[in-house]
Amino acid sequence: MKYGYARVSTKDQSLNLQIDALEKYGCDQIYSEVAKGAKADRPEWLQLLAKVKKGDTLVIWKLDRMGRSLHHLVKVVNELLDKEVGIISLNDPIDTTTAQGKLMFNLFASLAEFEKDLIRERTMAGLKSARARGRMGGRPKGLPEASIKKAAIAEALYKQQELPVNEIASQLKISKTTLYKYLRYRGVSINADAYKDNIKNI
After folding, report:
1. Which residues partner with 86 through β-bridges?
2. Angle formed by the axes of helices 70-82 and 99-132, to 10°?
3. C-beta atoms surrounding 15 within 10 Å
4. Does the predicted model carry a pTM greater than 0.70?
């Protein structure tokens, strides 16, 4: 059975976009509701969680539709995986019905959990270095907040050397140029010849 879940935070927002996408994907039954992500009492969501069983698949528009926070999201996903329920996010590189998709989620969960502390450490190191050179400054130029998690996942996949660059970019839904930008941001050493070859093919 393929279940869909759609949620918006306020009545001013429309569920239509999410529901249309879930129907197009082929969900057999869709649960939807208006509720804040931080609200624990989401009756439709709780009813859905009680109904799904081994072999079912839960389809969502984005991962943030499921969890109130990163910690809560990882907890919910792991509980569903323990029940052998597959999870597919239509707008994230997550599909736990495949081995590669499970790897992607595990990387996302592990890396995102520590990313906030790492960002803080990098910022403090940058400020310390600037002060040592007699300059003061705020946040240095870098990636937008929304791209930082993808950059961490890109680094992990690239270093594993199990997937070609094209496949990594496809899984993360980014271009190869953006992938290399992420890797440079993370300080990853990139094979120069491979980089040139890939640039020619973009």
Report:
1. 57
2. 160
3. 16
4. no
* pLDDT tens profile 128-184: 655 665 544 444 456 676 688 788 888 878 877 777 888 888 878 888 888 888 888
- Residue identified by tokens 């996949």 is 157
- The sheet that has 29-34: what strands, in order across it? 29-34, 2-8, 57-60, 86-89, 94-95
195 and 111 fall within a common domain: yes
Map residue 2 onto helix, strand or coil: strand
Chosen domain end from 92, 117, 148: 92
Residues classed as catalytic: 9
Q: Which domain holds residue 147?
A: 99-200
Residue where one domain finishes, among candidates 77, 92, 107: 92
